[in-house]
Amino acid sequence: MDGMVEENGTSTGAGPADPLGSASSSAPASAPHVVAVTSIVQLTLPTQAPSAQSVIQPNQQSVIQTASNIQSVQLPKGNVILVSKPSSVIHTTQGTLQTLQIKPEPNSLVSTQGQSCSDDSCSGDESPKRKYREMLTRRPSYRKILNDLGGAEIADNRMGSKPGNENEVSLSSSLSFGSVIPAGALQTESGLHTLAVSGGGAGGAIVQYSTNQDEHFYVPGPMLEDQTRKRELRLLKNREAARECRRKKKEYIKCLENRVAVLENQNKALIEELKSLKELYCQQKTE
DNA sequence: ATCATCGATCGTCAGTCCCC
DNA sequence: GGGGACTGACGATCGATGAT
């Protein structure tokens, strides 16, 4: 999922997995596409309102893109339309003058070059097995994805969490390692039992309880101090890592939602433009 | 007021990845 | 290979909401 779309809808990179990016990079430079031209008509489409500006800017990865700014294509009846439309959603990398090939196939909307590939599925030697393998491989971590997005600067707005938990019981004044205490003495609201025990090391120790058969807690002896300290540290780190991971996951999902919105807008605009082009074509045809 | 349900959040475990 | 980081999965908890 490289090359994600940021909130403003601009692509941040031409990542290989970006469906927009992959659609545009395959056009050979300046390949002419004049086929059996019988007549050429140049149209100038009415300029649209600013709100209807192209969603695909010239410096963007366009869904429909060529290397040259004038291109001819074959229409079903042999006519060629040169479209000059300043705010067209169909841009070249260098200009906005471009021709369209309206292919006879019903499913093909707009194509230059005769290759209407707009996703990764058309990349030649990609076998289905290979694609499945890639699907099954672990996707990049949220950290990587967000780094690629340039969103790594997402503020460290950690949720004011503090290490330790609400039910930590400090009995440092009365406990020592090896103590055995009644279970009832450690009741907490949620039933979690973590003891803070002083002595036996620098700054005391956090230990997990254990119970013996007759419902007493056993405070581990000094030999377990290191183990329990390490465990507590590991749990603490993992706790914070889980928080961070969830935060990144939320960001990632937000990005995906934004991307969906942008692509929906693009799709809408393209459909509208195609509609108007078809109308123009029909007009020309009837004349 | 009480109960059931649902969604969100959290902590923990386990598996995987990645760097040294 | 070892250790740390990351993340999916699971269960527990909590608050909101609707039904009774």
From TrEMBL:
Residues 228-287 form the BZIP domain. PANTHER family: CYCLIC AMP RESPONSE ELEMENT-BINDING PROTEIN B. GO terms for molecular function: DNA-binding transcription factor activity, RNA polymerase II-specific; RNA polymerase II cis-regulatory region sequence-specific DNA binding. It is found in: Nucleus. This is Cyclic AMP response element-binding protein B isoform X2. GO terms for cellular component: nucleus; transcription regulator complex. Keywords: Coiled coil, DNA-binding, Nucleus, Transcription, Transcription regulation. Residues 1-28, 107-130 are annotated as: Disordered. Residues 246-280 form a coiled coil. InterPro entries: bZIP (IPR004827), bZIP_sf (IPR046347), CREB1-like_pKID (IPR003102), Leuzip_CREB (IPR001630). It comes from Spodoptera frugiperda. It holds the Pfam family pKID.
